[in-house]
Amino acid sequence: MSKINSHIVSHWKAYLRFLVAAIFPTILPYKFSGMYTLLILCIAFLMLIFELFRQNYPKNQIEAFAYYTLWISVFLCIILHQQPQYNYFDYEFSLLFLHYPIKEILILKLSVFVISLMRYKSILVTSTILSKLWLVIMFAHFSILFLNSTYSFGISAYYLAMITAIETILIIFSEEKLLVYKSSIFDFLWKKTNQK
Q: Measured between alpha carbons, how far is 15 from 13 in angstroms, rounded to an integer?
């Protein structure tokens, strides 16, 4: 019993992410009008705040898998909630429901993930300040879609995804060992300035 308790304590962040990831598809069919929208956005916002703290970024493979599962679940639920409005599934191939710029962002992030996996043999990807900012913009974009607003952060999220992808790839090829967190590719400039 003590082994189970110590395992839960040491991986509580992963279990929290898995729990929230399971909640989203469970409550998706039950649309409680305004309360449903508020509930979904409040849970996603609380998890966003949780993810923005540096100490909560995944430190091992289990936490990384839970992290990806959570945000994929959140984003898919918001997109599927929008499906009746935008008729994503009217296309010949249902995978095309990922409308611009979502599919381009997915391709960018997946490319970075694959490059990191090949280089470090780990599903962990280095986090930076820009990647955290991208997560905030992406959350804002999906929230506005969810609220049926005409305004969108989609293009901003796309360009920021391109910048963060380039930055992360540069970090991957400039660092011998996997870094869980690096504030920026320009860290070395700040270190030199501080040493002077």
A: 5
